[in-house]
Amino acid sequence: GTDEQEAAFYAIVDSDGRIEPRDAMPEAYRKTLIRQMAQHAHSEIIGMQPEGNWISRAPSLRRKAILLAKVQDEAGHGLYLYAAAETLGVSRDHLLELLHTHQQKYSSIFNYPTLTWADVGAIGWLVDGAAITNQVPLTRCSYGPYARAMVRICKEESFHQRQGFEALLTLTRGSARQKAMAQDALDRWWYPSLAMFGPPDRESTHSDQSMRWGIKRFGNDELRQRFVDMTAPQADVLGLTIPDPDLRWNDERGHYDFTQPDFDELFRVISGDGPCNRQRMEHRVAAHTEGAWVREAAAAYAAKRAKRAEA
Ligand code: ACO
Question: What InterPro entries does this protein's entry cite (predicted)?
Answer without folding.
Answer: Aromatic_CoA_ox/epox, Ferritin-like, Ferritin-like_SF, PaaA, PaaA_PaaC
